[in-house]
Amino acid sequence: MKFAHFIGIAWLYLCCFTAATVSASSDQLNFFSCTDYHCDTGQMVSLTASQWQSIRNLFSADTSPAEERENIRQAIALLENIVGSITGTWRDLAGNIAGAGQSGQLDCISESKNTSTYLQLLFDGGLLKWHDVEERHVRHTLIFNTHWTAVIADRSNGERFAVDSWVRDNGQPPDIQPLSDWLVGRKMEQQSATSNAADTLSPSAW
To answer: Lower Cβ count inside 10 Å, N or C end of the chain?
Structure first.
């Protein structure tokens, strides 16, 4: 009888302990973020439940592929702001030259890896209804002009899009354009960032 009582208590403790562990771990979203050229250095970043909810709020269930791509732009901008305040990459400027030598400056390798990470977070979080995340892509327009980008694919027609955050300062929405245009170096029309949610939220609100 005492043995059965002990087993019951042990089982209850094990169940409660497991539930508490899962609950605690679900309060944060952990991932690796590049913090230097070539992703030679980086650090683990944790997003709180409220920070992740601010990302989820940018998406709705009834968007079109084009609307979802705009939501992706805003989500990456907001993620860059949140992560940048943690890792110091808020200093990152568009391209390589303007911020060369500064702490927190990223090149296209690091930018494309971070953006791919953000896209995978969105996908794993069930926020992408119209797009899949693909492997990063590289172009070689000149021998010394190699450039990397993150890539998504439209499920409705299979069209692939470059998601290039390297061409913008940290916290600005990335360029999203057909990968075929990106591969030949075609400039994308200026996309308005006036609706950028990241510009309206201070770090204290995350």
So the answer is: N
Here the tokens at position 79 are: 């993620």
C-alpha torsion 11→13→19→20, nearest 10: -170
Q: Using alpha carbons only, what angle is made at residue 126 by residues 155 and 68, rounded to the nearest 5 degrees?
A: 50
- CB of 181 closer than 8 Å to CB of 187: no
Q: Do 99 and 91 touch, CB atoms closer than 8 A?
A: yes
**pTM value > 0.70:** yes
Tens of each residue's pLDDT in the chain, 206 residues:
444 443 333 333 333 332 222 222 456 789 999 998 899 999 999 999 999 999 999 998 778 999 999 999 999 999 999 999 999 998 888 876 655 567 778 999 999 999 999 999 999 999 999 999 999 999 886 666 789 999 999 999 999 999 999 999 999 999 999 999 999 888 776 444 433 433 333 333 33
Using the Cα atoms of residue 120, residue 179, residue 108 and residue 75 in order, give the sign of their dihedral: negative
- Dihedral Cα 39, 29, 202, 165, nearest 10 deg: 40
* Strand spans (E) along the chain: 28-34, 42-48, 131-140, 146-154, 160-164, 175-178
For residue 54, the number of C-alpha atoms closer than 13 Å in the C-beta half-sphere is 23
In the DSSP assignment, the letter for residue 128 is: -
